[in-house]
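Hey, weird one. I pasted the AcrR family transcriptional regulator sequence into the form twice and got a warning about non-standard characters only the second time. First submission, copied straight from the form history:
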Amino acid sequence: MSTRWRVRSVVAMERLSRQEQRERNRLALLEAAEKVFAERGIQGASVDEVAAEAGLTKGAVYSNFDGKEDLLLAVLRHGLGREARAQAERLLHGGREAGALVEEFGAYWVEGARGGGQDSFARLTVEFMVHATRHPAVREQLVAVLFPDEGTGSGRHPLAPEGSGLAELPYGEADAILKSLDLGMRLLTLLAPERCPPELFLEALRLLSAPKAAGPGGGVAGEEAGAAAGGAVGGAAGAAAGGAVDEARLG
């Protein structure tokens, strides 16, 4: 091997080593920031405290992030990505039907809420959302983090079984509803677990993903009542009577 080649190899390894160190520092800062901001609040925590928690200098923070809000956005991206990877690894492989995924995802969510592993991230997310409502520039960036363009506007959400009301919505709208349920339930289970136990999330998910009720005259109750009322008149008259029963009930 020539001297020039050896020098190039050493330089390449040094560059890789610096890049790896930078990535390790960035990860350490993200994890430290999530802990510090969740414990002390967005306004109460400082960049200095984040650096100290990570065992790094304040300069390391500013060499990786533009400032406090940029760091917070990066923490949210990191946390949401971590959660998405965990969900995909556990739920979205094996070609299971949406109905089975609903049960598994709901059980997974309840397990996580009971374990408390996502509490700090949930507190931080909700607090930053409130902060963003007062700062339009931050709001725009946070919306982009919570609602990425990819996968929205078309197709059926994987947690929307065919035949459910949720399945009739575009992917993006169904995703917004499920995100609202997720964030709202996380906050309420932290605030009042005795009034809003985590198991209610699974119940709500089941309601959202249940088969859509048929209109007047098309429901099971209407058909049964119609059959009884129709008697010898026949199926057509029975179905009509069933519709009348349903309409009376709705009225």
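That's the output from the first submission. The warning seems to come from a hidden character in my clipboard, not from the data itself. Residues 92-215 form one domain.
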